[in-house]
Amino acid sequence: MSTERKRKVSLFDVVDETSVSAKLSKVNGSFSFKPPAVPSGINRWNGRPYSTRYYEILEKRKALPVWQQKDEFLQVLKANQTVILVGETGSGKTTQIPQFVLEYEDVGKRSMVACTQPRRVAAMSVSRRVAEEMDVTIGEEVGYSIRFEDCSSHKTMLKYLTDGMLLREAMADPLLERYKVIVLDEAHERTLATDVLFGLLKEVLKNRSDLKLVVMSATLEAEKFQGYFSGAPLMKVPGRLHPVEIFYTQDPERDYLEAAIRTVVQIHMCEPQGDILVFLTGEEEIEDACRKLTKEINNLGDQVGPVKVVPLYSTLPPLMQQKIFEPAPAPLEEGGPPGRKIVVSTNIAETSLTIDGIVYVIDPGFSKQKVYNPRIRVESLLISPISKASAHQRAGRAGRTQPGKCFRLYTEKSFNGDLHEQTYPEILRSNLANTVLTLKKLGIDDLVHFDFMDPPAPETLMRALEVLNYLGALDDDGNLTKLGEIMSEFPLDPQMAKMLVVSPEFNCSNEILSISAMLSVPNCFLRPREAQKAADEAKARFGHIDGDHLTLLNVYHAYKQNGEDSSWCYENFINHRTMKAADNVRQQLVRIMARFNMKLCSTDFSSRDYYINIRKAMLAGYFMQVAHLERTGHYLTVKDNQVVHLHPSTCLDHKPEWVIYNEYVLTSRNFIRTVMDIKGECVRHFSCIVVHLHPSTCLDHKPEWVIYNEYVLTSRNFIRTVMDIKGEWLIDIAPHYYDLSNFPSCEAKRMLERLYNNREREKADSKTRK
Ligand code: CDP
Ligand code: MG
After folding, report:
1. What pLDDT digit, counting tens, does each position of 235-287 carry?
2. Distance (Å, rounded) from C-alpha 99 to C-alpha 257?
3. In contact, 511 and 546? CB cutoff 8 Å
4. Which of 87, 119, 333, 635 could form a disulfide with 237 if both were Cys (CB 3.0 to 4.6 A apart)?
């Protein structure tokens, strides 16, 4: 055993605090963490004695590759305004560099350090870890800030925040004066907000010679950053990656989920000790895989070791997220087959979070990626093949602590021939309406000459300007209007912000606030596998005949009326955590409304107009997301003419499970006519002949015009969260958009023409009556 190992072992045996620090200073003669003018053993940030845990973690931290270059880094930072730092995932960039920066000229004592993260989960998880490393309470000296959740205080010196939040802060504080050093982390991810921050900070740096910028990346594309930041020095943290053996499948896999599960089981049965990391694309898929894996491995009984299967995705509650850092279970008996941790994760585990102990990686080659088609104005998340750079990063996760193996569930030919080298920057795949509104608010008018690292397509920028103009946020010259100013203050999409800002005019701002809050949190309906029917029935009880937005409003109202009670949520298959989050979002939106003196109001519930007003207010924001029911029975998106289907989750297209009918009609198809919804319990007999609801029934009524919240691209084009609206409202509320002189010829146009003619006739009639 090496002497170093012996030392470490003896260190961990000690619990007495003073002797731990005494040993530390002996072992680490060259230890450069100098607590200035603070007695040793006292935390310089809060004046409390360090805990034992602090010293334990300190040992681990000092073993991270970035610690070798701490002094060098601080010197480079001192000599330059911008520094680019590249290092393998897990080398300690995110957790250590901001702490080093705090020591730089005692920054932490006077002003703040910001470290951006593209993902909310990473911002929360990493800040917690760093608070623990610094032996302070999260939210005090170290905090985080993500949309709708600020966990920081006046004491905070180091703040982890999403890149989107830093952009928001810049709107109120254009020179970001509260910060002395800004660290843009995970720059290789090239998220939309990070790309905008690049351009913005370049300008800010020119105006603030005292500000320092550190750009951190896990990949070598950093040379591109170097060019962009006019030759800023590039520091490389030498990687300490162990070799990773790559395996490809012989033939393409038809079902990657099934193949991934099969591979995990095989590894668990045949391979030596080491944890497994599986990359999948989203919450549902991951939960499904976790369930199947647990079941299959349990079925194998004692011949295999115990496993801990842990999911990881962005909407997972923080406590569950922490589970990925727990150790693998011990073997059932000494010398028995090894226990394993199996982490099933989205792209989060690719570079944002490092999980130690992973030896096997399973890479099916897909991730959920944003796509945008400016021609038909559709932005959606699509399961798409990853890039070679991503595949490389994923494989790297297997070689952190020892040599590992990566199983790619695609062929080598496909890797070489089909995968792009790099993932396209998000700015080239996004609807930019929100970004353009932010930039306008930041005072950047000339978007064409803004210094984007990769300039977006002119068509995308044009589309964004057009949308903002239709919404009234920009005038015809492209200048921010008063309405646009207010809209930009809401951390929401422009459509939602517009609907909120105009809601007092429709006398329903209270309700629109609740709907906006519900739309801003994950799906609140639970549907456990073992109780799907009961869950569907529970959901149906909240169903509103006019659509899903009002169903969400029903849920919110019921939740409040029942005292925000968790057992009420449980009984009704509603996710309590989501409801609490929605309530929190609502309160924050109320605060922004109050800043602008916007009225909180409701139409009397007994009034006929109660729901009509809400629906009209929604339309005032979403008039560009309308679909029309054609005679063929399909919906077409208005103006863009895309065939879309109501998403199966909608309450609008609800067919009852059991019906009685009055008449059986045989024509080209078997129809049943005059039908009524009944409860299944009363039915004794049924036959197996396929019948269809007769077109005359009111049970299967699809509304002619709907607005939708989301466009979902899967095997079919779906619209999700849909609401019935009236054609007349389109021409009343958004005549500038429903101007038929620039409308493609279609059924919707003919209907609108008729509506306009009716309007004219009504006007003429009322004149003659007068
Ligand atoms: O940013 P980079 O990928 O270079 O590394 P890091 O995120 O700073 O992680 C450094 C070390 O801290 C890794 O060994 C992580 O496993 C560990 N870590 C942890 O134990 N718990 C966290 N919540 C975050 C990081
Ligand atoms: Mg990192």
Report:
1. 999 877 899 999 999 999 999 999 999 999 999 999 999 999 999 999 999 99
2. 40
3. no
4. 87
Q: What's the distance, CA 535 to chain centroid?
A: 25
ipTM, interface predicted TM-score of the complex:
0.98
Phi, psi at 590, each rounded to 5°: -60, -40
Helix/strand/coil for 760: helix
The rounded distance, in Å, linking the Cα atoms of 744 and 14 is: 78
Ligand nearest to the CA of 126: 1
Q: Which ligand is nearest to the CA of 96?
A: 1
Amino acid at 654: H
Query: Distance between CA 718 and CA 595 in Å, rounded?
Result: 37
Residue type, position 519, single letter:
L
Ligand 1 pocket: which of 95, 275, 393 to mutate (most atoms within 8 A of CB): 95
Per residue in 409-440, pLDDT (tens digit) is 999 999 999 999 999 999 999 999 999 999 99
CB atoms within 10 A of CB 385: 17
The model's pTM is 0.87
Can you give the pLDDT at residue 38? 59
Alpha helices in 300-358 (DSSP H): 318-321, 348-351
The sign one gets for the Cα dihedral 577, 582, 586, 588 is positive
Q: 90 C-alpha vs ligand 1 centroid, how far in Å?
A: 5
Q: Residue 691: how many CB atoms within 10 A of its CB?
A: 15
User: For a pocket test of ligand 1, which of 73, 345, 354 has the largest count of ligand atoms closer than 8 A to its C-beta?
Assistant: 354
- Taking the C-alpha atoms of residue 257 and residue 340, their distance in angstroms, rounded to an integer, is 20
Q: How confident is the model at residue 297 (pLDDT cuts 50, 70, 90)?
A: very high
In 3D space, the residue among 734, 731, 726, 684 whose CA is nearest the CA of residue 706 turns out to be 726
DSSP state for residue 107 in the 8-state scheme: H
pLDDT digits (tens, 9 = 90+) for 577-591: 999 999 999 999 999
User: Residue for token digits 């079919």?
Assistant: 716
Decide: 745 and 754 in contact? Cβ < 8 Å.
no
Amino acid identity, position 93 = K
DSSP string, 33-92: ---TTS-TTB-TTTSPBPPHHHHHHHHHHHTSGGGGGHHHHHHHHHH-SEEEEEE-TTSS
| Ligand 1 midpoint to CA 352 (Å) | 9
Report the separation in Å between the CA atom of 88 and the middle of ligand 2, taken as the mean of its atom positions: 9
**Among the listed residues 146, 139, 181, the one whose alpha carbon sits nearest the alpha carbon of residue 167:** 146
